[in-house]
Amino acid sequence: MTEETAAVRASGLKKRYGSGDAAVIALAGVDVTFRRQRFTAIMGPSGSGKSTLMHCVAGLDKPDEGEVWIGGTRLAGLNDDQLTDLRREKVGFLFQTYNLLPTLTALENITLPFDLAGKKADMRVIDAIVDALGLGDRLDHRPTQLSGGQQQRVACARALAAEPEVVIADEPTGALDSNSSDELLGYLRRSVDEMGQTVVMVTHEPSAAAYADRVLFLADGSIVDEMPAPTADSVLDQMKALEKVGR
Ligand SMILES: Nc1ncnc2c1ncn2[C@@H]1O[C@H](COP(=O)(O)OP(=O)(O)OP(=O)(O)O)[C@@H](O)[C@H]1O
């Protein structure tokens, strides 16, 4: 795999919390590559290390061992300020809780990362994203005036606005009803197919994972399986099989 095709690469990631008898191995040595313009879903039982992997891969947390590269930049070689800049420019975040600032309008929330970085937003890019997400008539609204689905679409627009190297989504549909989930997932899918975005998404839902190009299954801090071209049924079957092995 060349640097050109890898948006994010991680090698030998290990992470342990606590020490002695209370130690928990959250990552047991993970090697993974997220190729550009691909949508990857990460699944696995509770406590299998999904969030820890996402945090290490996004530079929010440091692994005890191993290396992460985002778009060819080695995270371990950066100081805290450089890491903050890299996250702001190269990583878009989407969480279950929308994390919008209540005093700002939808548009101000979308452009906030640019304002914090003292940079000018590319309004052509933002207009296209806002259009695709159907947020055009909501831009002056504050988060409390928006539905959950609309708030998550604003968070999605914010994550995509800087055209990041990768969008890291940690259970982005966890708080949404099924219609809003489908809309958001359909948009993430189109951002990969039509805008060339790279998306990595943690989910517990087979129907959400079916929007991805491949699913990685985690158990006990390791990647134990990988499924290309997933469907909701094939993912569900695989989860059941892994649960049986784990018992
Ligand atoms: N800050 C922390 N301190 C101590 N242990 C932690 C910490 N964060 C995670 N862990 C432990 O590390 C393991 C992996 O946690 P992680 O949150 O990555 O799992 P997960 O697969 O995302 O789980 P879930 O699906 O429940 O969100 C778990 O056993 C968890 O209890």
UniProtKB/TrEMBL annotation:
Listed InterPro entries: AAA+_ATPase, ABC_transporter-like_ATP-bd, ABC_transpr_LolD-like, MacB-like_ATP-bd, P-loop_NTPase
Superkingdom, natural source: Bacteria
Entry GO terms, CC: membrane protein complex; plasma membrane
Domain ABC transporter: 8-245
GO molecular-function term, one example from the UniProt record: ATP hydrolysis activity
Pfam families noted in UniProt: ABC_tran
Keywords linked to the UniProt accession: ATP-binding, Nucleotide-binding, Transport
Keyword ATP-binding among UniProt keywords: yes
Name of this chain's protein: ABC transporter ATP-binding protein
Organism for this UniProt entry: Actinomadura rubrisoli
